[in-house]
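Title: Prediction job returns without error message
Component: structure pipeline
Severity: low
Priority: P3
Assignee: unassigned

Description:
Job completed but the reporter wants confirmation the result is attached to the right record. Sequence as submitted:
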Amino acid sequence: MATSYTDFVGEVQHRIETGERAEAVRTTRAVLETLGERVGEGGATDVAGPLPMEIDRYLLQVDHGHTYDYDEFVDRVLMRLNNQDLELTTSYGFPVEVDRSEAVFRTKAVVALLCEIVPGGRLADVEKQLPEEFEELFEFLDVETPPWEPRQ
């Protein structure tokens, strides 16, 4: 499924239930930069391939192949989410403070979207690079109704 930058950010905005596109961009950036750090360069390139170029750079511009556990992964996403990023604050105002549970939710929402856009084989190669404890990242894939969809 090909997607545009606007569609991707709009879908993240919907999933994390924010009225601000800047929050969706900040979330996308935090999650993808952290994922790009955690996996090898080849895995980051595989995931980045089908993404819009404005987004794929978040996976590609970082130093790849770091080894850390799931808790550290979430800590890094949280740190990035709460960083006062001048690039995003200049035109959109200051970002909202995000707690750990919100960082986990946002991470899972972005990963679920990646799973819908990136062909399965490419993402499976990335999943193989992650220890078993990272399975929690893919939690929203197995639910009948994800949190951002209306309940029937």
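Comment from assignee: result matches the submitted record. The chain has a mean pLDDT of 87.
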